[in-house]
């Protein structure tokens, strides 16, 4: 289990406990968070689950894959060093907490 | 100012949310004919129905609508649009006035017309998904009628549950209308290798509680599910005297023939390009991108700014067992199809060329080529097969070269 803190567009914060195997897109959708849409269902096709990772405690995140980098570059005007697709960040054993700022291009 | 949106599918909800992002004060009413919170529809055939206790992904939380002052009216079919008085009437006879109306009424399932058709299940809504998930769990022999994307997804999902699955398709090949023939052939071979029995040129003639009869043979069946496509819900638009032609005819700004009425999503028939002409797309990309355009244009009209045109690079996806199919652009059966060589094992990339210009790509288990394809299609340059061959079929190198 890990603690995920989402920072919403209005700077409010939502803290959710995540189970091993969950990803940051589905977790946000399951909790009805505004700004994370997951339009393509986690297929790495759309970037409507774009987040910026502000901090990680415990096990580090895996690097962005080539596919993730390509879709970020295509869909996001200014890709930051910490830009990620929420669907590609999967909670693993050893992760303690993650802070993710929602930076979506979604309509939602 | 008040905007009314008929239909709370992906397009309708996305338009409401996009409008709210642009303008905090505008009155937004979203009318749904379902009783539940609006939800993601693609997962229904991809994952939901394969669990006995299905769960659903909602588009937005219930609080979102309240907190953002979007009036979501549930369970309320619209009876009629009165364009002369800028209002609509609900089935309850309540009247709602609008300054701008967005029609996002989508499609409805095409009905199968054969003897015993009441025994055939179809999948469109959350309610259907509950019913079908139970039926699948309780069945051993499942026959799927229709080899389009939805039919293939259900066949693969049921097969993964170890059901005996037969997929029947009236045309000469599965996915025949959607992808290159060489691509669909490969997909069919994969499904057959997984134990799905595929019958093409096969038409169901009647159904009873233990078999599906067809022109080719009788198939022992506990459960028959039809995925034979959808038809646009045009009743309201047609009563309102809007132009109808395979959906609601809109211009590149998504306006119908009535200046106060827009149409988006699966129901909108829009001008695509000179080669293809008009298109009506049933996809998430189309719903989302049109929602953004219509929200922008409604505000733009109000503040007398320039309207945005809808000119998409369409994309689609389909999850079929272990296969992820991703399509970019609008392919065509008469295009010249070329299989990209020297690709990773277990993947397939097929390019569509019309007049020696790349117009679409079908990829199987190759997300990167799908994204490179979308980049190539949006480059506004003519990409020929020669050009691709110059780079040894490496789409990444070609994309870099163009930048």
Describe this protein's structure.
The complex is a heterodimer of chains A (108) and B (403). Chain A has two helices and five strands. Chain A has 108 residues and is an alpha+beta fold. Chain A has one domain: Beta-grasp domain (Ubiquitin-like (UB roll)), CATH 3.10.20.30. Chain B is α/β, with parallel strands linked by helices and 403 residues long. Chain B folds into three domains: 2-43 and 58-108 and 230-302, FAD/NAD(P)-binding domain, CATH 3.50.50; 111-226, FAD/NAD(P)-binding domain (3-Layer(bba) Sandwich); 322-402, FAD/NAD-linked reductase, C-terminal dimerisation domain (Enolase-like, domain 1, 2-Layer Sandwich). Chain B is 27% helix and 28% strand. Chain B has helices spanning 10-22, 43-46, 62-67, 126-137, 149-160, 181-193, 235-239, 284-302, 367-377, 385-390, 395-402; strands at residues 2-6, 27-31, 70-73, 78-82, 87-90, 95-97, 100-103, 107-109, 120-122, 141-145, 164-168, 197-199, 204-208, 211-214, 218-220, 223-226, 230-232, 248-249, 261-263, 268-273, 277-279, 315-320, 323-329, 336-339, 348-354, 357-364. At the A-B interface, helix 1 and helix 2 of A face helix 1, helix 3, helix 8, strand 22 and helix 9 of B.
Topology at a glance:
The complex is a heterodimer of chains A (108) and B (403).
Chain A: E1 2-7, E2 13-18, H1 24-30, E3 50-58, H2 66-75, E4 83-85, E5 95-102
Parallel strand pairs in A: 1-5
Antiparallel strand pairs in A: 1-2, 3-4, 3-5
Chain B: E1 2-6, H1 10-22, E2 27-31, H2 43-46, H3 62-67, E3 70-73, E4 78-82, E5 87-90, E6 95-97, E7 100-103, E8 107-109, E9 120-122, H4 126-137, E10 141-145, H5 149-160, E11 164-168, H6 181-193, E12 197-199, E13 204-208, E14 211-214, E15 218-220, E16 223-226, E17 230-232, H7 235-239, E18 248-249, E19 261-263, E20 268-273, E21 277-279, H8 284-302, E22 315-320, E23 323-329, E24 336-339, E25 348-354, E26 357-364, H9 367-377, H10 385-390, H11 395-402
Parallel strand pairs in B: 1-2, 1-7, 2-3, 7-19, 9-16, 10-11, 10-16, 11-12, 18-20
Antiparallel strand pairs in B: 4-5, 5-6, 8-17, 13-14, 14-15, 20-21, 22-23, 23-26, 24-25, 25-26
Helix pairs in contact in B: 1-8, 9-11
């Amino acid at each position: 289990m890990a603690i995920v803190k989402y920072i919403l567009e209005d700077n409010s914060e939502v803290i959710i406990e995540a189970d091993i195997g969950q990803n940051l897109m589905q977790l946000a959708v399951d909790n009805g968070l505004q700004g994370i849409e997951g339009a393509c269902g986690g297929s790495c096709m759309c970037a409507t689950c774009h987040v910026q990772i502000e901090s990680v405690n415990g096990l580090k995140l895996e690097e962005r894959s080539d596919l993730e980098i390509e879709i970020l570059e295509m869909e996001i005007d200014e890709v930051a060093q910490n830009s990620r697709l929420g669907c590609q960040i999967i909670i693993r054993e050893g992760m303690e907490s993650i802070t993710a700022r929602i930076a979506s291009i979604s309509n939602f | 100012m008040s905007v009314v949106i008929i239909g709370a599918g992906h397009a309708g909800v996305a338009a409401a949310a996009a409008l709210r992002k642009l303008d905090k004060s505008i009155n937004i009413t979203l009318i749904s004919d379902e009783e539940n919170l609006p939800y993601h529809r693609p997962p229904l055939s991809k994952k939901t129905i394969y669990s006995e206790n299905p769960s659903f992904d909602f588009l937005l939380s219930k609080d979102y609508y309240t907190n953002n002052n979007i009036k979501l009216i549930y369970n309320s079919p619209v009876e009629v649009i009165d364009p002369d008085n800028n209002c609509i009437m609900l089935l309850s006879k309540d009247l709602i006035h609008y300054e701008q109306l967005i029609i996002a009424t989508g499609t409805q399932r095409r009905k199968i017309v054969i003897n015993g058709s009441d025994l055939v299940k179809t999948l469109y809504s959350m309610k259907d998904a509950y019913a079908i998930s139970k039926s699948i769990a309780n069945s051993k022999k499942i026959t799927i009628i229709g080899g389009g994307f939805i039919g293939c997804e259900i066949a693969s999902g049921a097969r993964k549950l170890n059901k005996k699955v037969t997929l029947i398709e009236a045309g000469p090949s599965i996915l025949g209308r959607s992808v290159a023939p060489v691509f669909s052939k490969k997909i069919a071979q994969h499904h057959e290798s997984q134990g799905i029995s595929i019958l093409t040129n096969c038409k169901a003639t009647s159904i009873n509680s233990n078999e599906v009869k067809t022109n080719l043979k009788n198939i022992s069946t506990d459960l028959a599910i039809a995925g034979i496509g959808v038809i646009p819900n045009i009743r309201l638009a047609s009563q309102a005297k809007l132009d109808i032609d395979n959906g609601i005819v809109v211009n590149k700004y998504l306006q119908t023939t009535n200046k106060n009425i827009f149409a988006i999503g699966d129901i909108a028939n829009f001008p695509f390009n000179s080669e293809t002409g008009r298109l009506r797309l049933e996809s998430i990309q189309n719903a989302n991108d049109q929602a953004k355009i219509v929200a922008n244009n409604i505000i733009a009209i109000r503040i007398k700014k320039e309207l945005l045109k809808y000119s998409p690079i369409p994309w689609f996806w389909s999850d079929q067992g272990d296969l992820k199919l991703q399509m970019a652009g609008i392919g065509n059966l008469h295009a010249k199809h070329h299989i990209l060589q020297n690709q990773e094992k277990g993947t397939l990339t097929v390019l569509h060329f019309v007049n020696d210009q790349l117009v679409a790509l079908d990829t199987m288990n190759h997300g990167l080529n799908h994204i490179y394809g979308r980049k190539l299609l949006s480059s506004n340059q003519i990409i020929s097969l020669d050009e691709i061959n110059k780079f040894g079929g490496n789409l990444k190198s070609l994309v870099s070269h163009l930048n």
